[in-house]
Amino acid sequence: MMRFLQAFLRAAATVVIVAAVAIRPAPAQTVDANLIEAAKKEGEVVWYTTLVVTQIVRPLVQAFEKKYPGIKVSYTAAPFQEVATRIVNEGRGANVRADLFDGGATFYPINAAGFAAPYKPAAAAVYPAEFKDPSGYWTANIVQVVSPAINTDLVPASDAPKTLDDLLDSKWRGRMAWTDAPSAGGPPGFIGAVLLSLGKEKGMEFLTKLAEQRIANIPSNQRVVLDQNIGGQYPLVLCIFNYHAAISASQGAPVKWLKVLPILTFGTVAMVKNGPHPNATKLFIEFMLSEEGQKIHADAGYIPAHPNVPAKSPDLKPEVGKYEYKLVTAEMYNAHAAEWTSIYKKLFQ
pTM of this prediction? Predict the structure, then answer.
């Protein structure tokens, strides 16, 4: 698994170097003409998304609708729990409205209820094996690196935590926050990464001490937690996405992400079983995962999953940023969710 990921990251770094020497247009993505024709007859795609609308959803939709006139993309944005619940309820009520959804944690309850459909996008043929389900039920659309962040107006560089043990310093007691989202990118995922890195005994010892720091649980997502960090409510936050911090920093915000136990996971995209517009959905997924669509993700500040498309800030990827990480995929999280969530509730809520 690690060899595949390292190869992916080395490939991304190489793209950055080559691009600096010679900028060449990427070859156009070839899409089956029959699929395009069938998609245009359906004329619509309904997307239930967990992504930030202004940051990526609208730019992606606008580019797709321009490329394929006559096909409209309707979207509804919500947290992953709500997206999963809505799709499952619609499926059980024989009233399927959505065609596709995203989010690594979103997939498992939907699939467990029998409402995910397989599709192997041609555009993802070059993706690493770990970035797509062998049966085609999901494909990674973005890489996500979870890390702490500091408000640089409130925390001098010399005081910024550099190791896990630095989080136990008494100066941080009552001054840290994280999301309460139960996901690979939330506290349970962090707990899992600690246990995988330190081992069960030492990991639990560290987590017990960390719980004494009285970390605030913010009932919202990672972006909101980071915004509170930038706004000065909390000088140090955990479990934010490093690309969110990079975007805000590029806009002048006093924030810096830290290379303290970075967790690598990824977001995914999948089809809804019996969705009303299957061909238009496949076409939209092909576009989303193509180099053209992944470049839109990169321009929006996300870390693209496509191995030939570099991040807008190249050092967000481990190979370029030269930092070690702990891999916690949605599949790994799903296998250990009950255990890690139980520890979170016992120690931190």
Answer: 0.78
The enclosing H or E element of 272 equals: strand 263-272
End-to-end CA distance of the chain: 34
Token pair of 143, please?
Answer: 């890489």
Other C-beta atoms closer than 10 Å to the C-beta of 90 total 17
Q: At 339, give phi and psi (nearest 5°).
A: -65, -50
Cα separations (Å) of 68 from 35, 41, 78, 162, 278?
A: 12, 12, 26, 48, 16
**Per residue in 306-341, is it b (16+ CB within 10 Å) or e — as a string?**
bbbbbbbbbebbbbbbebebbbbbbbbbbebbeebb
**Quick one: pLDDT at residue 29?**
55
DSSP letter string, 145-164: EEEEEEETTTS-GGGS--SG
Report how far apart, in Å, the C-alpha atoms of 296 and of each of 56, 124, 314 are: 8, 16, 15
**CB-count burial class (<10 Å; 0-12, 13-18, 19+) for 96:** middle
User: pLDDT tens digits, residue range 276-320?
Assistant: 999 999 999 999 999 999 999 999 999 999 989 999 999 998 878
Return the number of other C-beta atoms located less than 10 Å from residue 278's C-beta.
20
Rounded CA separation 202/180 (Å): 24
Beta strand ranges found along 100-215 (DSSP E): 100-102, 116-117, 139-151, 176-179
203: pLDDT strictly greater than 80 = yes
Determine the Cα–Cα distance for residues 121 and 209; give it in Å rounded to an integer. 46
Residues 259 and 145: their CA atoms lie apart, in Å, by 10
Q: Give the SS3 label for residue 240.
A: strand
Query: Of 269, 273, 311, 300, whose CA–CA distance to 287 is shortest?
Result: 269
Domains and CATH numbers, the chain: 2-21+30-143+265-317 (3.40.190.10), 144-262+324-348 (3.40.190.10)
DSSP strand pairing (100-102 vs 44-49): parallel
Per the structure block, which two tokens stand in for 15?
């793209």
Residue type at 89 in one-letter notation: N
Q: Residue 18 is which amino acid?
A: V
236-241 and 255-257 beta bridge pairing: unpaired
